[in-house]
Amino acid sequence: MNGSLGHFKATLLRRKQRKEKQEGKFNKQNLDFISNKVGDLEFPKPSSYELKKINETFKNKIRKHKIKETVVFVIVMIVSFTVLFLIIW
Q1: How far is CA 30 from CA 21, 22, 34, 35, 73, in A?
Q2: How far, rounded to the nearest angstrom, does the alpha carbon of residue 10 sit from its chain's CA centroid?
């Protein structure tokens, strides 16, 4: 019976380590980073002119992105129809 208690404790410790590894590294019941405070961060309030300017930049970026997507789509379609035509011909 020598060492059986040590073996049992080591088995329990390994079981606990496996369980912690499976559940994740953090204790999900005690999350310190969540707070109920309102107003933790203070951001400057932009003026209406700045909001319009920001809105215009986003619209321009979206417009450019849509144009790029359309051009790529047209090129892919032309290439695919060309390849399809050459295979059938």
Answers
A1: 17, 17, 9, 12, 50
A2: 39
Alpha carbons 42 and 18: distance in angstroms, whole number: 43
Both tokens of 5, joined, read 């208690």
Q: Give, in order, the Cα–Cα distances in Å from 26 to each of 16, 17, 35, 47, 75.
A: 14, 13, 17, 42, 50
Per-residue model confidence as pLDDT tens digits over 28-43: 565 555 555 555 677 7
Q: For residues 46 and 54, is the Cβ–Cβ distance under 8 A?
A: yes
Paired tokens of 83:
């390849």
**Domains in the chain: boundaries:** 62-89
Please give the helix or strand (H or E) that residue 47 lies within, else none: none
> In terms of pTM, does the model score above 0.85?
no
Termini Cα distance of the chain: 85
Task: Tell me the C-alpha distance between 8 and 3, whole Å.
Answer: 9
Instruction: Indicate the residue type of 32.
Output: D
